[in-house]
Each structure stands twice: as structure tokens, then as C-alpha cells.
Write the C-alpha cells for this entry.
Amino acid sequence: EPVLRAMGTTIHRIGGLGSGQAMKALNNLVSAGGFLIGIEALLIGQQFGIDPGLMTDVLNASTGMNNSTQKKFKQFVLSRQFDSGFGLDLMVKDLSIALEVARARGLTVAAIVVSESLDAPDLDQTVEMLRAFERHAPILVAPRSGWDAGELADALLS
């Protein structure tokens, strides 16, 4: 336990051998899910004329708050900076581990199976996940002001 305390302040005893790794994988699954469903909500909200920044503020003051609404949406998605420092390849790796945890118990998790189709090791997760949703919407979350129709189309097709 002293080694663990050197790495963090909150330590939870999860259970038997392998349960700590399973918990980490499941935490990453929930984190990715929060990001994905939040992006969907922003796209749907825009169809009702709701500003994505305002939506993020409301989510953060409500039960929809999660790590992504707090630390990714305005900083990396709405700003369209897409440089969170967490590559899509790492998210896919984390979700693959969660899939293996589920499969080891004979379970299938649809959200993880979908993630297996993602393969863009050099890209930030915020870029590719947002672009995938925008292509299906097809609208942009917080397009840069002043973009003409051609620039919007290029962004959706990129």
C-alpha cells in the first residue's frame, strides 16, 4: 500500500486478482461513453437552436455532468482545438481491454464492439469521435464563425 499511496491519494480495495484491472477498464469504458453520448447531445441540441457552450454549462450544473463535459468539451471540442493529448489509439486500447474483461465473463458490450472499428493512431480522440458523429448528423458542433457553406462541407467530409 505505501507504493500505491506514492502514486495517488485515493485507494480502493476492489477485490481478488484481476479485479483492479477490470475496474480500471470499466472506468475507461464509462469515461468514453460519457464523451460519446455528450457529443450526441450537443448535436441534437444544436438542431433545437441551443448553443453548445450553453449546453455544456447546463450539463455541468446538472446530472449530465461528467469528465468530458467538464474537461474536454469547451477546451477541445467547441474550440475545435482537438489537442487533448489523449490519442484515439489509447482510447481504442482501453476499450479493447474492457471488451476482453467482458468477454472473459461471457458478456458482449455493444459500445465496445463499435469502438473496435476505430483505427487512427496518430489522431486525438476528440477529433475522430466528433468527426464520426458530425458525418452522421450531418451538422458541426460549434463551427467556427464566418465559415461559408463550402468550408462547412469540407469540415464534414474531412
Summary: The chain has nine helices and no strands.
